[in-house]
Amino acid sequence: MDVSLTLIIIMAVLFAAGVYAMMERSLTRVLIGFLLLGNATNLLLLIVMGTPGMAPFFGEESEISDPLPQALTLTAIVITFAVSAFLLALIYRSWQLGQADTVEDDEDDVALRERTDAEDEIIDDESTPEEEEATTDFIETATTPITVLHMKDHPAIHDDAPMDVPDGAHGQEDRP
């Protein structure tokens, strides 16, 4: 086996295990799955980087390595750390409030699961052809285009603030 093939297999296993773990209702398993996905992403970027080379210094004549995958790996590490800290805070708060870290179904989830296909078709058919052709959510609301007025154009406001005057137009200001 080649080293890169081994890394590809390990990366695929980490991705599969991470996605499987994230499908659970336990927040701890979601965290573990997210960490596995983060490590699999780092391995993917390591594989994409290709053959290692010298650091990209000015004046080096040898083969240099691509710095982009290295920067993306550092970014992936930071994002994984931040989301992991957020998930740990959610797990801790969930444990404080309910002594469990599982996400329970609420009433809307149960109602959505019990809805039949016939009810879905009825809900889809409730819209009128006028609503389907509309380009806005405000069907029967009269709209006018937005016009931008300068403060000097508004009749109720008297503005004494100095204005920018173009060169050569000094003394030709018309003030109300």
What does this structure look like?
The chain is mostly helical and 176 residues long. The chain has a domain of 90 residues: Helix Hairpins. Helix content is 55%, strand content 0%. The protein is built from six helices and no strands. Helix 1 runs antiparallel to helix 2 and helix 2 runs antiparallel to helix 3. The radius of gyration is 31 Å and the shape is extended. The N and C termini lie far apart (86 Å). The model has no long low-confidence stretch (mean pLDDT 78). It comes from Microbacterium suwonense. This is Na(+)/H(+) antiporter subunit C. It holds the Pfam family Oxidored_q2. It is a multi-pass membrane protein. Keywords: Cell membrane, Membrane, Transmembrane, Transmembrane helix.
Task: Set out the fold topology.
Layout: H1 3-22, H2 27-49, H3 67-98, H4 107-114, H5 117-125, H6 129-133
Helix pairs in contact: 1-2, 2-3
Beta-strand percentage? under 5%
Judging from the principal axes of the Cα atoms, what is the shape?
extended
Under CATH at level 1, the class of the domain at 3-52 and 67-106 stands as Mainly Alpha
Radius of gyration from CA coordinates: 31 Å
SSE order, one letter for each helix or strand = HHHHHH
Q: Mean pLDDT, as a whole number?
A: 78
Number of E strands: 0
Q: Which secondary-structure class do the elements indicate?
A: mainly alpha
Please work out how many helical segments DSSP would assign.
6
Family: Belongs to the CPA3 antiporters (TC 2.A.63) subunit C family.
Biased composition (Acidic residues): 117-135
Organism: Microbacterium suwonense
Main location: membrane
